[in-house]
Amino acid sequence: MNLSKKYIKQKIKEKQKSEELASKIQKPQYSDIYSGLMQQFPDKNEEYIEQHANKMYTFEKENYEKYITEVDGKKFFNVSNFLNGVGDFHRTSVNSSKLLKDNAVQDLIQLPEQNKNAIKDVSYKLYNYVQEYKKLINYYDMLYYRAVINPKESVNKEDFIKTLEYFEGYNYKLKLGEITKKLLLQDIYFGYELSYNGTTKKTLMEFPFDWCQIVGKDKSDVYIYKFDLSYFNNHKESISNFPIEIQNAYNRLSNNKRSANWYTPNVNKQFAFKLDTGVNYSLPFFSGIFVDMVRLHEIKEIQTDASRSDNYKLIHMKIPIDESGGEADKYLIDEGVEVYHENASANLPSLFGIITNPFDVEVLNLKDNNEQSSNIVDRHFGNLLSSAGVSRMLFNSSSVSSTGIKASIKMDENMMFKLLRQYEAFFNRQIANNIKGKSVYSVNFINQTVHNEEEVYNRYMKIAEHGGNYSYVSASVGITQLEAIYGRQAEKIVGFDDAWDTPLATSYQQSADDTNKKDEVDLSDDGVEARD
Prior knowledge:
Elements: H1 3-23, H2 30-40, H3 46-67, E1 68-71, E2 74-77, H4 79-87, H5 89-95, H6 102-110, H7 116-129, H8 131-140, E3 147-151, H9 157-168, H10 172-186, E4 188-195, E5 202-206, E6 212-217, E7 223-228, H11 244-255, E8 262-263, E9 270-274, H12 290-310, E10 313-318, H13 337-346, E11 352-357, H14 371-374, H15 376-388, H16 403-434, E12 441-445, H17 453-465, H18 470-476, H19 481-494, H20 496-499, H21 512-515, H22 525-531
Parallel strand pairs: 10-11
Antiparallel strand pairs: 1-2, 3-12, 4-5, 4-9, 6-7, 7-8
Helix pairs in contact: 2-3, 6-12, 7-8, 12-15, 17-18
């Protein structure tokens, strides 16, 4: 087998193939890119076209110079660079599939005011692709939106019912859940109240985050903002979905180029909520662990690649050499080596590879059999939760009960209860501005979550038993005051009240054994073990 001739033939073929590939790739021309964008986006302004044309030209030029080499007027496709860029196993399995780059995220977080929109996008990408981040967001989305409207002075029945009906028109239980989730992801929610004439129904519309900026608070302690009307320069099709005052303001801007782009919507209609009130700019609550989240995603991919490589099998077929004569490269098999190799390769199952050469091959096992090392994802997630100030046991199904976990949940609940105070300020402002009657009322949201629901109910039940406000008892189980009033009236109309002549059993009517029995959530770790 003449290896030198084969090598030359192979190189000639590679050169011809390189020239063929290179001939198909044309050097990018800025004028072609610019005119193409003009045709594709006829409604965009010159600044927009020029900005994107520059980006596309720079990108295409870099790739052209990376993969095309010109020698003596001839173009050659640089196969080596191409393989290094896309063919390398490590780069395709880890780097090219990166969700985000940790150093890029770190740079964004260091300048939050200038990068608020990009940081918000990072938060949503993590929520979409990193399950641990989604679990963290869903854990903090714990609030119940159960409210009681209280009078601040003597009560007028007609005014009271009117106020309850007005408040119910917000569909607040559903809408506040959506708003809270967005606040956890992006820190600020910019909204506007749309009312419908002749009804109590109202809609809370969200304004585009990237085009709004908080300017302060009004006298009701509600955040207010300004809106950049140039948003409609590239979103004209959506302007009909916005309030009439916004449409009119944009029309004035279009007719008078000297008008300011920033517009402050009606302060009696607009509102904004902010999760982190410690800073004036937007900063998602978990931005401090965004870099750790990105690295967690990378670690999971690395561990997946490691698990995959552990299952690979490599078959080595050694070409025998005549070692007795002392001549180098004297093979005992001269012809047919390639045939044997190709036949064996064609019949291999998946995850098997084959090599054929005259060398001795040693097996190097890089696998770390240490169980602690293989649990790198779990350990990194545990460290991440510690950085976020969240108990690891909250995400560990093997932990049934813990005294320490209750204290952790209490801290998290108190943080979220601060949002309820902002919601109260907004609804109180709207009721005061729109309900003109003889009495004044205020909205009070109960500090209740999925974790303390029963505890809150029991507290208000004890207060009611001593003559306290029964509205808090019904609210703590999700029944609004309006539902309680109209529901009781309906029971009387259809005769249900006669069916309830016999009082329901209470704790006082149960046996001593039942009343003294604690729920599992009330037991300490030692208590659970003692009970079992």
